[in-house]
Batch of 2 targets.
Target 1
Amino acid sequence: MTHTFVPILLMLLFAVVVAGTILGLNSVIGRHQRNPSKLAPYESGVPLLDQNRKRMNVRFYQIAMLFILFDIEAAFLYPWAVIYRGASHGPSGLFLFTEMLLFIALLGVGYVYVWKKKAFDWK
Amino acid sequence: MNPWMHYLLWPCIKFAIAITIVLTVVAGMTWIERRLLGLMQARLGPNRVGPQGLFQIIADPIKLLMKEDIMPSAAEKVVYVLGPMIPLLPAFLVFCLIPFGPPPAFAVTRVNVGLLLIVALTSTSVYGIILGGWASNNKYSLMGGLRSAAQMVSYEVPFGLSIVGVLMLCGSFDLVKIIEYQERHVWNLFPQLVAAFIFFVSMNAESNRTPFDLPEAESELVAGYHTEYSGMKFAFYMLSEYASMLVNSCLMTSLFLGGWTLSVGGYGVTTAALRSMGLLGGVIGAAIFFGKVMTLMLVYVWFRATFPRFRFDQLMDLGWKWMIPLALANIFVTGILILAAGTLKIGADTYWYGELALSIVGAAVLAFTLFLITRGRPAATVAARPTEPPKVIHASRVSEA
């Protein structure tokens, strides 16, 4: 079944070429009137007050870590969800359901812990 | 059939047609949005270029192409150029995978893990935004990029979890099979009402649209992650935003609104009925699909005209404290009902009971949740507000207190 992926690869190449061409065209036919103050970082029209890369709130990284945790949960749920209905008529239906319930319960404990630790609060 | 013809030429032709339609819709959408917003805000909107300002959709790209291509002196050069390209590529690749009409003629390619691939591809667009924001070397860009990353990442989770309910009902990653399931039963919107609600909210947040357009909150962050971008690079960011709106509308149509079919329980405009009409049937199917997609696109514009922007903590609250538990509860309830139907040997003939039960439970849960969300702040936080100023204890007297 890999041959059905060939068009996607083709379109990836196509999209890269088209995007590159348009960007190149823009830099060729666009205006060329540059001066140092135009190329300076935008600061609402006043000279740069302080450095650009300042320290950022650590919560952004916290959210990223939580995201990995919960998105992997979703990724684990996908294959289970696809086979669940077919198996629910057979003897393994209850087993499959309990298994997923345990999985979600384990993550639920972590979820409650994170909530109580106020990781979701932006104050 | 000649394999070259089958695997190279045919997909290319179909992709050329699909991308033409998509680009037209995306370009037309900018005009429709501005005109509609004008209408809703009692002003005119663009009406100078061509009849009703329709040629604005050609004039805008030409103008952007002629603009100066600014590369800020402080920017990281390579990443700065890559930034606008990264979100554009997945947004266009996804259109290979979406079946616009009855297969095989109206989908560029049909992959057995289509939905998984679409979800994977669309979630990469956040890289472009955060890389572009970082590479611009500007504090507004960086802040907008980080906010955008946090927001998209937060809504990626309920987005992914809401799809699980549909997968449980339909039992396949193949969008064609999901649509064919819906034409035999009923639109997934009804038995998966909660999932559809979560999906809809998340897709608004994913494509950075109002009321979730915090990354480009112009009153706070100038223009967010594309503050430093001009000309075609800026256009690429805009293009990828509109393309991702279109992708999400197509996904919503396929997953919850029955795709190219208009049928309940196998009666109505089904795939078989469309196939019997030949090419005309296919065109009718694609027209139905685009009708549904355009309706959703108009809802986007309507939302933009109606809702004020969220505050960032409200946004995070909604994503993490409401959407995720709701999505998990939806999976749980769907699981119980499918299991009950399986154990009680309710076969394929009487699926109506299951779908009806799911619809009723879903509607009840959704109504209760909306009630809780719109009730305002919970009583606990109001009561916790101190009525008298807190007693100030000097640091040297802490031990006495």
Target 2
Amino acid sequence: MDWTAIRLLYLSELRAALRERAVLINGILIPLLMYPLMMWVMFSGILFVTARFESFASRVEIAGLPAEHRSLLERLEEDEGRVEITEVEAQAGTAAAAYREDVENRLLAAELDAALIFETTVDPPGNAEVLLLSNGSSDQSQAARGRLERALSAERSAWLDRIAEEHGLDGAEWQVFEVRSNNLATGRQMGQFLMGMMIPLFFVIMIANGCVYPAIDSTAGERERNTWETTSTLATRRIHVVTAKYLYVATMGLVAGALNAAAMVVSFRSFLGPLLGRLGGGDGSGFAFELPMTSLPVLLLTAVLLGALIAAAMMILAAFARTFKEGQSMVTPVILLVILPVMVLNDPSMEFTPALAGIPVVNVVLLLRQAIAGNVLWLQLGITVLANAAAIAACLWLASRILRVEEIATGSFEGNLFQFLRQHWRPAGGKA
Amino acid sequence: MSTVQVEVEGLSKNFFDPSRGEVRAVQEVNFECRGSEIFGLLGANGAGKTTTLRMISTVLQPTAGTARVLGHDVASDPVEVRRNLGFYSASTALYPRLTARETLTLFARVNKYPAERTRSRVEEMIERFGLGDYAGARIEKLSSGMKQKVSIARTVVHDPPVLIFDEPTVGLDVLNALDLQKAIQELRDDGKAILFSTHIMSEAERLCDRIAIIDKGRIRACDDLEGLRAATSQHYLEDIFVHYVTGDNTTE
């Protein structure tokens, strides 16, 4: 191999690519900025909506509030803040039905945000069946409902404790069927789980995205610009030219994937962590988004494997394109072929078995997920490397066979990969 | 007399065209070209000039026959052929996002010009073709005339003994065409063997030391201008050309 020529051509391709706006946008800016931007927008949006909810003054009507639950009013005013309460007497019989209809009409007309109706009261005093009415199509009504639910729940617990105490029972005795939950996962483990679900998926998408433009640019783009003939007159073997182009496409994919993974980790830590904390009512310490050090070499390895495989597959298809537009339509199936299994298999319960390690792309995603969780499965890692290396070798072999055909190299072949295979190979493998 | 640099024997090329079937673009072409010689291929559009030159430059593979550049066979030793050859065509474009200097450096290095002398050679080419003010500009920003100069510099930067110019003046204005012709004559004077294709009679008459008239993929005649005049009793090359392509005089 003439590595000097390969290096010179590779560097020229990279230099030219980095001066092309589309390459910079697709290969560097989108992977780097998309997720921080997306999460910042999401974070800001959720904060905005939450603040808006909190700023609503809820108009609430409470009918038939028993004396034992007067403390509910205090809870609503003290704990929930902006609540405008209207109290009405309990209704009975036909008056009750008419009242309820009136409340429903006022809720639907947005004259009222929520209503609590204490419908029946049986012994012991304070025991009640409460109807909470709201309008699910109104933000304001939803906010009011939330405030009432929280206050009611607190009121109910306090009342039950009081009743139990009056009967000489403590909480553990009367709550004989008590459910207590305890999340054993640390914040770091929960963060790793979430990253393991999301990073591999977007990692694959971004590597594919990073390869698309360079793959088309270095094949169909050369034909469209009439530079293919110029390249053909260089004093090096065609396989060296193709190798340089292939390395360039794979590099762009690798860079896009690595930048994307780094940007995602930063986005998780800077935006998603605080956001999850805020939504959960905590201080953001529930999730810790930290990648284990062992995952970094695996991340790099998977970026190399995926970049190399996707670049090879895309170049095979793009080799048939004579124009950029043709190239775009030809490489689209590769993107789908890569993304679909990843999305289908994005199931957290899926075990990374040695058999799955034999399936290219899927194995990389599962390997990466395990690595993010802090597990390195050496057997599966070995099988993954071998399986992908075999797939890459097969793609490169096919690419070299294809580019040996003069009609393909000169762009005079009219058709795609499948038409080419039909014309040039018999089932036994001989050239037709 | 200079040594033979390019030898072409029985060179043929067939294409398959879905609408026309098997097309015999070039049929058993024979000629040779020596150092310090401009050998012209004169023919109408579609006569087979470009296909012949593309086979010699190894862009296309011959269906039959051989071509050798400094003894290197185009089929079995294409890299050595390309190392000893500079190929210029009006349809051969430059890499738009590289600068003129980067383009020349790339072609010098990949075409095996000695690494330690590449920088000075590139600067020499920039000086010779008047590219100084534009050497650092991207090709896509240059005018057509400047692009053409970069193309010629790119063709000769690795100092190959054989040069191919395939209809180089197509699309150029008169002044740029004359500049190019002057550059080609200087290269011939430097000892290069030059294969030059054209369909413009005056250009062939002015530049070429020997002319091969090609029609329908076959060479109909091959000689210097005086020889062609003597053989046809015609004075003007245009009349000589018409004589061969409308008659039945085949020279192989």
